[in-house]
Amino acid sequence: AQRVTQPEKLLSVFKGAPVELKCNYSYSGSPELFWYVQYSRQRLQLLLRHISRESIKGFTADLNKGETSFHLKKPFAQEEDSAMYYCALSGYNNAGNMLTFGGGTRLMVKP
Amino acid sequence: GAVVSQHPSWVICKSGTSVKIECRSLDFQATTMFWYRQFPKQSLMLMATSNEGSKATYEQGVEKDKFLINHASLTLSTLTVTSAHPEDSSFYICSALNPGQGSSYEQYFGPGTRLTVT
Questions:
Q1: Set of chain B residues whose Cβ sits within 8 Å of the Cβ of A101
Q2: Can the peptide bond before residue B111 be classed as cis, meaning omega within 30 degrees of 0?
Q3: Distance between CA atoms of B96 and B108, rounded to whole angstroms?
Q4: Which of B44, B77, B98, B108 is the mutation pick for testing A, counting most A CBs within 10 A?
Q5: Could you tell me which chain B residue has the CA closest to the CA of A42?
Q6: For residue B100, what pLDDT band results from cuts at 50, 70 and 90?
Q7: Given the DSSP bridges, would you call strands A96-101 and A83-93 parallel, antiparallel or unpaired?
Q8: What tens digit of pLDDT does each residue of A26-85 get?
Q9: Cα A94 from chain centroid?
Q10: B73 by DSSP, 3-state: which?
Q11: Are residues A52 and B104, on separate chains, in Cβ contact within 8 Å?
Q12: Closest-approach residue (CA) in chain B for A44
């Protein structure tokens, strides 16, 4: 079974402070991991995926297979980063590909 | 980019009635679409995977007779909540898999539909 855990429901930081949103996963195969973001009153959108190793809006995430983690980091948080962040794992069910989401972390960046 | 729409964006219905929610991929063909349910301040829960031209695959605990899914074309999937009850009130979100992304697996999400059953 595949599972994604985001231990923090809420993370509150001041503008300019570093931020790390934690994500741990369990999956028996080779995982493909994503971070999705949901800004207030907007749809869920992809922030980044581990295979592309890119930085989006200053966010990065490194897959650590030894620790089964995919933490999202940003060195200097901005107020516009306030949103819900979901870590997701791509796996397979009987129908094919599926995404399993973590519980989400609400990031609040205070001025 | 790939756009997914949902209609309606919100709906209120009475207990015992049925309501249909549409999910459309606007600028790409989606052989696979997904239906999620999201409770307030909670994460998305996959309800079912919808493959064009075949029966949907439901996740454990999701009543297939209550949540009817039809994926009759490559750009449209529908979710019908039958004999709705207040506990079915929720935010329903669909997503579509864009095969144009090559080996990368990415779902594009609709804006969601808020269902309130009175």
A1: 43-45
A2: no
A3: 5
A4: B44
A5: B111
A6: low
A7: antiparallel
A8: 988 788 899 999 998 889 998 988 877 777 899 999 899 899 999 999 999 999 999 999
A9: 25
A10: strand
A11: yes
A12: B109
